[in-house]
């Protein structure tokens, strides 16, 4: 029984298990846990996605409402759009039954399963369409699963599901031409869009091209065309309708985040010399630099490449099908190098890293036309042999001519590629002779070739040690869990840290923080962080280097401090080796209360933290905006919220500059230095002596990142980001009156520009008056959930507003004394509420924009599908 089942379905088993086992073996060879000390965590998978998986588990099991909105996304943000992009894969359910310390193992397992499933779905396509038979089915299935796109994007797990679905979508389009209404098409496309709307959009574009190609093959009479187009278009709309419950809120979220970066002016130009793309047909043509600025990953093996070329030589294929295929092929080729087409595939936005994310459709297209070549049993005459030999020779000569100019190819790679191309050519030629069993050899050649490409492509990539994740995460979770225990009666608080593994630590440990790395970050939030002096980019914000006033403003009620950081001689353990990498300087934490000591970290309670909502003077509505002067911005917020405090909060402090092997550049504008002896170490030292025990802060320009300089404050090395777009603020002293402070800057290049460096004294006593004033005007009787905030507030005059630290986005609705009230926007970012004198009950409620409408549309679409299914069974339309 089992043997008969295997004989019937062996093509599916081979298509699944061969690529799955190859992936398993490769990462075992690389030492991935449990086979070694490494993991599959690299780049964004290790810095971003793994934390989203932890958030996904915590949300589903403990607080599902955070799947809609979460205060763990920076200082708050929509999560439906984030989930739609990162978390809709059914494979993610594996994380629900996996302990957090074993998440890297779950990632390993999911990766293996996804590669296997890609082989399976492609095998289903090639078999159900009758394009291939016998061992050619798993041959092409293995080829699809191990195409270069999937291999080099194995860490972009959220993209792989839609790539898995592409063959199923193509198969469903074939059903359009069977004469009845094809329900398979809208269901397959709807699922694909739900799994990842971004890759799903690319598949929609390809589906249009694939439909045109199928029309060229299957439409034989003009009257057949309009019904086919109707089924295709109506089915596509029905597919969008089934996914509307997620698509509409996601589109709304995109309009407030990533959508604001849409290109408005298209450059009608080639992005690079087009023939450079041919080098990606060389086996293993990938390295780390290709992730950020490389060419499209289209390597699909020799069999697919030759089969694609030979398709156009087969006389039995109709001319109109060849014209359609040729036109589509040219369109796809130009999409790899012509900017308007590239932008179209990416939704009119250039991707940040990982360019040409649509190139998987090109690999599928190559395999598709190659399958047609095999279906029509392409004859290998002089023309065909000449074409394939010319292609092989041309590619080899081109690659050898430029091999020294491109670091992702080498002469051994070129030789191996030529060897496989010639071997494939020999086998294709033998198919026309008495060696009829030669088809069975293709599976061996393809498996070896694609397996070698897997090894050669990923060997240059480094991966995070498993212990680096597990040890740090355990310490982080222990710290946050202790804070939760200490603050169990506090309605709302955020947690800050002086250490960091990723910017998504708050999601990893399930707490409200203020940092986030997310492609769907709202620009108003990132701009707000930049103005306050926190590192920000287009897709991230970091809150590690706050000041006393920003901590208070953002309700940072607790701070976790690495105990190896000697800011407090009574509690620090300077020689302690911890798993907590220090990334900030916060000597001002001495102003807070020690709440608890843990083996590796100390927990501070901030007595000055403001409530999530509080009354401020109405002048805050007109607060001036400062782009490159964060302390001026903080000063403005300070005075506009409590205008009766007129004394300056920050006062500039002089410092001395000492140069070691450095000198000012000739005609330098400002503190712009260059090395005297470029072969010797150099540094710039800033020194000053605090005149009081107040906190002191240093501003730090956006050009001073880890690529250009390293920073040490009083002997403590500070971890810097490798890029940010704004001036930062660092704490440099507190309660260190008359104690010299030394700040050392070591250039990583031969020059160093001290961009926007200044030192300021902070008036701590004045700040405490400000904090106490606003705390007394805070929301009382608070009830706070991720989707609602309510409480009472007492305004003493008509010149006050309710100020919050909640980003002002579409989904928030405000009610004052039960009546809907228009929101106002404060500091160009935060929700404000106008109120009149008296006691008021405030409610702030989040409703995901268009979620209800989307649910109605999706319900209607599914009713249509069910109704059509019933009607079809009765009437066989």
Structural overview:
This protein is of the alpha+beta class and 877 residues long. The chain folds into 3 domains: 2-458, no CATH class; 475-611 and 620-764, no CATH class; 768-846. It is 44% helix and 16% strand. The chain has 26 helices and 30 strands. Strands 12-15-20-17-18 form a 5-stranded antiparallel sheet, with no helix packed on it. A hairpin with a 2-residue loop joins β17 (709-713) and β18. The protein is globular, with a radius of gyration of 31 Å.
Q: Can you give me a brief rundown of this structure?
A:
Pfam families: YfhO. The chain has 877 residues and is an alpha+beta fold. The chain has 26 helices and 30 strands.
List the defining traits of the structure above:
26 helices; transmembrane; alpha+beta; five-stranded antiparallel beta sheet; membrane; Integral membrane protein; single chain
Cα shape: globular
Major β-sheet annotation = 5 strands, antiparallel
Mean pLDDT across all amino acids = 93
Tell me the radius of gyration: 31 Å
Largest beta sheet: strand ordering: 12-15-20-17-18
Report the uncertain regions: none
Structural class based on helices, strands and sheet pairing: alpha+beta
Helical element count?
A: 26
Helix content: 40-55%
Q: What fraction of residues sit in β-strands? A: 15-25%
Q: Span from first to last CA? A: 37 Å
Estimate nothing, just give the exact number of structural domains: 3
């Amino acid at each position: 029984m089992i043997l008969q089942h295997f004989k019937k379905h062996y093509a599916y088993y081979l298509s699944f298990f061969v690529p799955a086992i190859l992936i398993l073996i490769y990462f075992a060879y690389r030492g991935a846990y449990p086979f070694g000390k490494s993991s599959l965590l690299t780049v964004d998978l290790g810095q971003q996605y793994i934390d989203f998986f932890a958030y996904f588990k915590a949300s589903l099991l403990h607080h599902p409402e955070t799947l809609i909105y979460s205060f763990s996304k920076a200082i708050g943000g929509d999560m439906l759009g984030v989930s739609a992009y990162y978390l809709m894969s059914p494979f993610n359910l594996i994380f629900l039954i996996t302990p957090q310390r074993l998440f890297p193992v779950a990632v390993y397992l999911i990766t293996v399963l996804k590669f296997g499933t890609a082989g399976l779905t492609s095998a289903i396509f090639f078999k159900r369409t009758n394009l291939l038979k016998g061992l050619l089915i798993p041959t092409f299935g293995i080829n699809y699963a191990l195409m270069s796109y999937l291999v080099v994007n194995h860490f972009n797990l959220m993209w792989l599901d839609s790539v898995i679905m592409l063959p199923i979508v193509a198969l469903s389009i074939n059903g359009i031409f069977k004469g009845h209404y094809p329900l398979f098409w809208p269901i397959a496309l709807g699922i694909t869009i739900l799994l990842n709307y971004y890759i799903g959009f690319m598949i929609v574009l390809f589906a249009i091209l694939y439909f045109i190609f199928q029309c060229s093959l299957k439409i034989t009479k003009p009257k057949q065309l309009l019904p086919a187009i109707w089924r295709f278009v109506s089915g596509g709309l029905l597919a969008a309708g089934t996914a509307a419950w997620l698509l509409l809120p996601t589109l709304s979220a995109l309009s407030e985040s990533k959508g604001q970066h849409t290109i408005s002016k298209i450059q009608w130009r080639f992005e690079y010399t087009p023939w450079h793309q041919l080098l990606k047909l060389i086996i293993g043509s990938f390295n780390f630099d290709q992730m950020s600025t490389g060419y499209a990953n289209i390597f699909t093996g020799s069999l697919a490449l030759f089969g694609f070329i030979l398709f156009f030589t087969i006389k039995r294929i109709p001319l109109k099908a060849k014209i359609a295929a040729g036109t589509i092929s040219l369109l796809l080729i130009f999409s790899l190098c012509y900017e308007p087409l590239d932008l179209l595939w990416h939704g009119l936005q250039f991707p940040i890293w990982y360019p040409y994310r649509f190139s998987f459709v090109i690999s599928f297209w190559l395999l598709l036309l190659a399958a047609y070549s095999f279906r029509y049993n392409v004859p290998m005459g002089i023309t065909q042999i000449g074409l394939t030999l010319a292609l092989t020779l041309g590619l080899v000569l081109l690659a050898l001519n430029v091999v020294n100019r491109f670091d992702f190819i080498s002469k051994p790679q070129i030789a191996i590629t030529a060897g496989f191309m010639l071997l494939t050519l020999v086998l294709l030629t033998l198919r026309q002779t008495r060696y009829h069993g030669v088809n069975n050899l293709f599976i061996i050649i393809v498996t070896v070739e694609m397996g070698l490409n897997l090894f050669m492509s990923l060997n240059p990539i480094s991966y995070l040690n498993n212990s680096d994740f597990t040890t740090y995460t355990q310490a982080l979770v222990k710290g946050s869990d202790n804070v939760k225990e200490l603050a169990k009666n506090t309605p709302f608080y955020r947690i800050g840290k002086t250490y960091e593994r990723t910017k998504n630590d708050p999601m990893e440990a399930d707490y409200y923080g203020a940092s986030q790395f997310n492609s769907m970050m709202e620009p108003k939030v990132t701009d707000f962080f930049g103005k306050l002096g926190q590192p920000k980019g287009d897709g991230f914000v970091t809150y590690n280097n706050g000041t006393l006033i920003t901590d208070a403003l953002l309700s940072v009620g607790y701070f976790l401090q690495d105990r190896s950081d000697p800011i407090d001689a009574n509690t620090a353990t300077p020689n302690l080796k911890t798993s907590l990498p220090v990334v900030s300087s916060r000597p001002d934490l001495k102003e807070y209360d020690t709440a608890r000591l843990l083996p590796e970290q100390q927990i501070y309670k901030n007595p000055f933290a403001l409530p999530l909502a509080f009354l401020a003077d109405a002048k805050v509505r007109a607060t001036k905006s400062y782009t490159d002067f964060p302390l001026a911005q903080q000063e403005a917020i300070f005075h506009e919220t409590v205008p009766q405090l007129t004394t300056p909060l920050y006062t500039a402090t002089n410092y001395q500059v000492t140069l070691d092997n450095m000198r000012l550049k000739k005609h330098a504008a400002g503190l712009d230095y260059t090395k005297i002896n470029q072969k010797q170490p150099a540094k710039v030292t800033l020194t000053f002596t605090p005149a009081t025990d107040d906190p002191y802060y240093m501003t730090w320009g956006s050009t001073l990142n880890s690529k250009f300089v390293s920073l040490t404050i009083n002997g403590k090395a500070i971890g810097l980001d490798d890029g940010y777009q704004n001036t930062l603020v660092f704490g440099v002293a507190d309660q260190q009156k008359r104690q010299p402070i030394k700040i050392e800057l070591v250039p990583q290049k031969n020059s160093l520009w001290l961009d926007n460096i200044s030192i300021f004294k902070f008036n701590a006593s004045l700040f405490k008056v400000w904090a106490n004033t606003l705390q007394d005007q805070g929301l009382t009787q608070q009830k706070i959930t991720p989707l609602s905030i309510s409480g009472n507030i007492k305004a003493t005059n008509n010149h006050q507003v309710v100020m919050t630290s909640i980003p002002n986005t579409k989904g928030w609705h405000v009610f004052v004394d039960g009546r809907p009230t228009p929101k106002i926007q404060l500091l160009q970012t935060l929700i404000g509420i106008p109120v009149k004198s008296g006691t008021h009950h405030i409610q702030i409620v989040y409703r995901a924009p268009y979620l209800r409408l989307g649910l109605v549309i999706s319900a209607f679409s599914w009713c249509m599908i069910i109704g059509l299914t019933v009607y079809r069974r009765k009437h066989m339309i």
